[in-house]
Amino acid sequence: MTLANPADAAGTTVARRREQRAWYWYDWANSAYITSVGTVLIGPYLTSVAERDACGRVGTVDDPCHADVDLLGLGLSAGSLVFYVVTFATLLSALVLPVVGAVADRVESKRRLMASFAWVGAVATCMMFLVAGTSWELGAALLVVGNLCMGASLTVYDAILVDIATPDERDRVSSRGWAFGYLGGGLLLVLNLGLVLGAGDAIGTDTAVRISLLSAGVWWGGFTVIAYRGLRDHPPTALPEGEDRTEGALVRRSFRQLWTTLKHLRTYPQTMLFLIAYLFYNDGIQTVIYSSSIFGQKQLGFSTEVMIATIVLIQFVAIAGALTFGAVAGRLGARRTIMGGLVLWILIVSAGYVMPEREVVPFLVLATSIGLVLGGTQALSRSLFSQMIPAGREAEYFSLYQAAERGTSWLGTLVFGLVHQLTGSYRPAILALIVFFVVGFVLLVRLDVRRAIQDAGHEVPRVV
């Protein structure tokens, strides 16, 4: 039986469009953390802080730091520390996010839950201003909190897409959200670039980076208010008959939610196939994003200023990329468009392996290529997955989706960190990511999108 789409009860098209515009603002808000913190600043900065503790200095391309830092008795390479921290945060997310999903599917106000996680994460990001000297432990702890809150807020945020957009609207709405987010993240990066370039001896590069981290937290928390005020509260969709929704039952259910959700997912084999494919190829994408600044600085010898300028370029190119992928999906379908994007990702990673050191032009060409495919593959993945999940379990399923989402990947960062620790070079580490895109592509070849949507009981869009 095909279920009514929740967005159909949202009122007129005008009312839905109004909510969709408010929804876009959270992409604008959280992209400050994704770009300024996760992609550009915290990786190289926290690595430098750890290197000062391990080696008494910051490593360079010509004189790298190969010493370890001590974390709970474990000797971890200072250069790989950030990747291990992100890995830990993602494993923790795998336990926490299904609980968030269970709660979000049953609360009367998803927007309030989303904003609460966002504001806690924003406070943790603001506190990164305090990370200085050799205090990498504080930075690592705040990074875990920030990534966890980001994943939790996005679990709820993605589930809201089903409430505010009909099946035929979702590719467009999701792509516009990503594009708007890239615009917001890019504008803040421009401001941060100006701060870092103009720091001089009076402020210093480290202080400029810390102020930029603070600005990302203020941006994330402040613009979340617009999304919170513009969205409406949508009542939970009816769950299977007989399920207890009392507060005590919800708490008991939450502790066993990961197993319950995975067991329920087995009844939707095509949805599970897509999620596994997404786990692989998105881990590759996220690791490229997260490692790009470290790769550029530590392997290719570019300054922080060059890296920030490069990420700004990626942000603005990604706006056009996301909108273009959305338009192509309207003609070819989301699955085929994503697969084309994965072929381009394989070519990009291969080019990164042979990228010459200290040559800006080839690096900018590579960055432009990343921008063209970055937003499109992610935006279409979100909208495609929303078509394949059963009604009433949107946030629950998106909690699994977020375990593999931006900033919370763990397979890719773990492989990247291990390969670097074993080889002492970031080049073989970046090349190893090809396997994630290849596996994702092969699994998407086997995916039957129409069957997945029908199995979930939803209306099939005109183009799949």
TrEMBL record:
<keyword id="KW-0812">Transmembrane</keyword>
<dbReference type="InterPro" id="IPR036259">
    <property type="entry name" value="MFS_trans_sf"/>
</dbReference>
<feature type="transmembrane region" description="Helical">
    <location>
        <begin position="113"/>
        <end position="132"/>
    </location>
</feature>
<feature type="transmembrane region" description="Helical">
    <location>
        <begin position="178"/>
        <end position="199"/>
    </location>
</feature>
<keyword id="KW-0813">Transport</keyword>
<feature type="transmembrane region" description="Helical">
    <location>
        <begin position="425"/>
        <end position="445"/>
    </location>
</feature>
<feature type="domain" description="Major facilitator superfamily (MFS) profile">
    <location>
        <begin position="270"/>
        <end position="464"/>
    </location>
</feature>
<dbReference type="GO" id="GO:0022857">
    <property type="term" value="F:transmembrane transporter activity"/>
</dbReference>
<dbReference type="Pfam" id="PF11700">
    <property type="entry name" value="ATG22"/>
</dbReference>
<feature type="transmembrane region" description="Helical">
    <location>
        <begin position="307"/>
        <end position="330"/>
    </location>
</feature>
<feature type="transmembrane region" description="Helical">
    <location>
        <begin position="81"/>
        <end position="101"/>
    </location>
</feature>
<dbReference type="GO" id="GO:0005886">
    <property type="term" value="C:plasma membrane"/>
</dbReference>
<dbReference type="InterPro" id="IPR050495">
    <property type="entry name" value="ATG22/LtaA_families"/>
</dbReference>
<protein>
    <submittedName>
        <fullName>MFS transporter</fullName>
    </submittedName>
</protein>
<dbReference type="InterPro" id="IPR020846">
    <property type="entry name" value="MFS_dom"/>
</dbReference>
<feature type="transmembrane region" description="Helical">
    <location>
        <begin position="211"/>
        <end position="231"/>
    </location>
</feature>
<keyword id="KW-1133">Transmembrane helix</keyword>
<feature type="transmembrane region" description="Helical">
    <location>
        <begin position="337"/>
        <end position="355"/>
    </location>
</feature>
<feature type="transmembrane region" description="Helical">
    <location>
        <begin position="272"/>
        <end position="295"/>
    </location>
</feature>
<keyword id="KW-0472">Membrane</keyword>
<dbReference type="InterPro" id="IPR024671">
    <property type="entry name" value="Atg22-like"/>
</dbReference>
<feature type="transmembrane region" description="Helical">
    <location>
        <begin position="361"/>
        <end position="380"/>
    </location>
</feature>
